[in-house]
Amino acid sequence: MQKFLSDFAKEQIRTIHAKSQELNQSRGKDHNQVLFKLVHEHAEEIQQLHAESNPHYIIETGDLLILCLELIKEAGANSDEVMAECYKRYHKKLDFLLKKE
After folding, report:
1. Which of 12, 14, 40, 57 qualifies as a cystine partner to 50, CB 3.0-4.6 A?
2. How far is CA 76 from CA 27, 48, 50, 71, 94, in A?
3. pLDDT for 23-58, tens place per residue?
C-alpha cells in the first residue's frame, strides 16, 4: 500500500484530531457535526476568496484538507486506504467522462 501521508503528517493529524475532539467534548458538542459545519464554512470561504482573486484561498484549502482528514480519522478509517480508493475512482470517472466527449 502506498502512503498518501507521511508519518509526520499522520502525527500532526492525530494531535490536531485529539485536541479538536477534546475541545468539542468539553463544550458538549458532537465532534462530527462540528467538523461537518467547518467543512461547509471552509468550502464557502474558499469559493469566495477565489472569486476575489485572493490567494489566501490556498491556505483555506489546506485547512479544509485537515478537516477532511479529521473526518476520516473520526470514522476510524485508514487515510492511505481511503485515498488509494479515491484516486482509483477519480481516474475511472474522468476516463469515462473523457471518452463520452
Report:
1. 57
2. 22, 32, 33, 9, 28
3. 999 999 999 999 999 999 999 999 999 999 999 999
Which cell goes with 1? 500500500
How far apart CA 49 and CA 57 sit, in angstroms, is: 5
Amino acid occupying residue 85: E
14 residue type, one letter: R
Q: Which three cell numbers stand for residue 73?
A: 480519522
- Single pTM value for the model: 0.91
Which residues in the chain belong to E strands, given as ranges?
none
> Residue 49's Cα: distance from chain center in Å?
18
Q: Which amino acid is at 31?
A: H
Pairwise CA distance, residues 10 & 60, whole Å: 19
